[in-house]
Amino acid sequence: MGIKRYTAQQAIDILVAAAQGYKEKLAGRIFVIIYKDLASGTIEHKKIKFTQNNFQHLTGIKYADYVSPRDFYKMCLNKMLSPHKIRFNPNGFTNMKLSVLNYLPELLYNKFWIGESINNDIHINADYFAGDTRCVVSLGFRRAKEDYPVTLKRQSIREVVKKENPVCLVLVREIADKDNWEFGYIDHKLAGKNFTSIKDVAQLYLGNNIEIVQELMNRYTREE
Predict the structure, then answer these.
(1) pTM
(2) What is the DSSP letter of 74?
(3) CA distance between the termini of the chain
(4) What residue stretches are annotated with the Phage-Barnase-EndoU-ColicinE5/D-RelE like nuclease domain (predicted)?
């Protein structure tokens, strides 16, 4: 099945909705993804930061009037984009990104996999990817002091990573609030089986609040 070719106005509608979701779920937040590395059998983690500056790059859209990535994001939120100034990438990547852009805000809040990249992208190489278990969308990240998103693909994670690893737990907080961690996602069966190792990783971020991990796991166990 071919990729839908969007009009400029359709692209704007997608951008506006996705920017709102990005604001509510991702922008200005730190995520800690705790997962089981199936190759080693150990519990590992990634720390990721999402900022306003990341949004435009994930859309594949260029704007005729140069604006900064931050301003482009704000224009999406404020519905200030002009269809006459929307520019698509001629290789078709923009349409592919737009077709899955609205999946982006919820990706890290639902069951997903994570894995090291096979580095087969001739345009932008990501160090690793997170992808939904329906194998529809993959989000690539680059390593840094705090890793950050660099590419969005309409592609199964199984096609872009060496091995997909199951995610146990996702911690999330606002960048400015260093102490107020919340739970973005938890696989209570997997987390329960690996609780001791997960607790050790979570302790690095939660400090003396590790009891909230146990409390949440107990709640999920009761609901099962």
Answers:
(1) 0.91
(2) H
(3) 39
(4) 14-173
CA distances from residue 192 to 33, 164, 198, 202, 208 in whole angstroms, order as listed: 16, 20, 9, 14, 20
| Cα angle for residues 147, 159, 90 (degrees, 5° grid) | 80
User: Mind listing the pLDDT tens digit for each residue in 73-111?
Assistant: 999 999 999 999 999 988 888 999 999 999 999 999 999
For residue 169, give both structure tokens.
């737990």
CB–CB of 87/6 below 8 Å?
A: no
pLDDT on residue 224: 44
Task: Look at the chain and report how many structural domains it folds into.
Answer: 1
Contact 71, 85 (CB under 8 A): no
Percent of the chain at pLDDT > 90 equals 71
C-alpha radius of gyration, the chain, whole number: 18
pLDDT of residue 200: 87
Q: Indicate if the pLDDT at residue 1 is higher than 70.
A: no
Residue 143 lies in a domain: yes
Q: Per the domain annotation, does 2 fall within a domain?
A: no
Burial of 67 (0-12, 13-18, 19+ CB in 10 A): middle
User: Does the residue 166 lie in any domain?
Assistant: yes
Q: Which domain holds residue 121?
A: 8-218
Asked if residue 34 belongs to a domain, the reply is: yes
What SS3 class is residue 88? coil
Tell the burial category of 130 from Cβ atoms under 10 Å away from its Cβ (0-12, 13-18, 19+). buried
For residues 211 and 102, the model is more confident at 102
Q: How far, rounded to the nearest angstrom, does the alpha carbon of residue 139 sit from its chain's CA centroid?
A: 6
> Which strand (E) or helix (H) includes residue 45?
strand 43-50
